[in-house]
Amino acid sequence: MKTITPYLLKFTLTATVLTIIFRYFLSYGIENQFGIIITISAVTYGLLMFASGWYFGRKDGEYLPIYDVGFRFHLTTYLIHNGISLLWIGLGFGSKYENLNVSIMVAIYWGIFLLIHFVFFLWARKNSINNLDKEDIFE
Amino acid sequence: MENDKKLNELLLSWENTYKKGQLTLWIFMALQESKKYVDEIKNFIEKKSDGTISCEEQSLYRALRKYEHIDVLTYDLKEGNKGPDRKYYYLTNLGQELFNQFVNRNIKLFYSTEIKNILKLNEQ
Fold first, then answer.
1. Which residues of B touch A2 (CB under 8 A)?
2. Is ipTM beyond 0.90?
3. For B99-116, what is each residue's pLDDT tens digit?
4. Least CA distance to A60: which residue of chain B?
5. Whole-angstrom distance, CA of residue A107 vs CA of residue A86
6. How do B86-91 and B73-78 pair as beta strands?
7. Span B2-92: which CATH code?
8. Please, which residues have CB within 8 angstroms of residue A139's CB and are 6 or more apart in sequence?
9. What are the TM regions of this chain, as residue ranges (chain A) (predicted)?
């Protein structure tokens, strides 16, 4: 698919690695009741995900200005974070205090926001041709 | 002297504005002539525009990617002198039709006798 660009793939790889590392430290912190590890890993994960989204998103726009109001990167983040979280706990890598239902609820609530974002994406598509902004196609 | 400086500044300012939006036309003209790879497109534009249009390779690559994305041009891979295969770009049927209609609507009008007289092109 033409909208799967090299920079989206690089972001996907980065997000996957960051999420696995985050999941490891989160489960370790919960298992051993280390609040500081839970806090640091969550804040670091949030900042690094934001930074990588910012960096690869900018590069992606320079490569091909796809007019999707950030939806492709949001969808990728959603699938990776929730996919890895559900697998992590489902396969038994989580701590004994973690509950699969919490991860399912996160995916559902986040999914509602993703759906709202999708509506904005559909609205933005009205101003695009092949997902490129009409105003930004020709030079 | 002062007037010459002002004229030159005004000319440069007008040309800078005028050139914005010209790159697409020059790329299409280059490909209308024959299939070309990036360096050839760049050379065509710089030579045929008498150096008035300069395009950086990055801008050219970005523009070509966009036009490929909207299906107005595509490419054949051919072996280069060294390194990876070269992409020889050419206009698709959609691109050709787009170019024809753009020229008909926006370029041909400059060739009417009336406009040529206003531009004093017949005197030169």
1. 69
2. no
3. 999 999 999 988 888 888
4. B62
5. 9
6. antiparallel
7. 1.10.10.10
8. B21, B23, B24, B59, B63
9. 7-26, 32-57, 69-90, 102-124
